[in-house]
Amino acid sequence: MEVLILPTREKADLLAARIIANYLRRKPHLVLGLATGRTMERLYHLLGDMHAKAGLDFSLCRTFNLDEYIGMPPESQYSYRYYMNHHLFSRINIDPRNTHLPNGMAYDLDAACTKYEDEMVECGGIDLQLLGIGSDGHIGFNEPLSALRSRTRQKALTPETITQNAALCGGEQNMPKRALTMGVGTILDAKRCLMLVTGETKAKILAQAVEGPITSMVTASALQLHPHCRIIVDEEAAEHLQGKDYYRWMFRSEPEWAEHHDLL
Ligand code: GLP
Fold this sequence. Notes:
Elements: E1 2-6, H1 9-26, E2 31-34, H2 38-54, E3 62-65, E4 67-69, H3 80-87, E5 99-100, H4 109-122, E6 128-131, E7 153-156, H5 159-166, E8 178-181, H6 184-188, E9 192-197, H7 203-211, E10 229-234, H8 244-253
Helix pairs in contact: 1-2
The site of 2-amino-2-deoxy-6-O-phosphono-alpha-D-glucopyranose has 14 residues, from helix 2 and helix 5.
């Protein structure tokens, strides 16, 4: 695991966008795993700008989202399909047929989950999985006690997650209680993971995930098992990290990061 500490939220977002753009330029057929949430909105905005101003080309890119609410129609403004269309897909030159989200409206939800896993395999697996972190430490919607080898499946949301996400759903009355989500095992199968975490509200849970024990109580801690996982954070989110001096030193001294030192 590598933790990259950037001075501000804006610079953290920009580094994440640059890393994604570099992967895409090197491999136009990139299979990109996508996340939702407020943190990702800013990142998607930057990717939209890179497409508009620098010609970043998504025409061959395939995407798979981490999760989708159960029973939320794709045309609803609160669905993750709507979120993705609005914040990213409509702003870049991606072929909509290459964009995938779990089907939370399926009659047979378990079959939809199996199909989703099969589609990822058919595409050769996820090259780069983008991740945020929930306030209870979840990745995707892998709430506490999610098996660390779990696959795409139905998951009940915690009251904490329901409260957190209700603001994006126009209040708790619209907020689904269940979702389909890639499992922790599905996420760990991605060739590379890139997590973006900003703001002081995430500082304590981030420290638990990165430096605490690997536990299904904080499913982001399973990323410690991943051989290629990078976590980009701003100073606020880094507040409780014990190893932050080492992480800063690494960003300043590893040659790989030299081209991004303008962000320091
Ligand atoms: C939702 C998503 C997660 C995401 C989280 C963080 O719960 N299922 O994948 O990481 O939101 O959201 P925010 O960036 O708004 O804090």
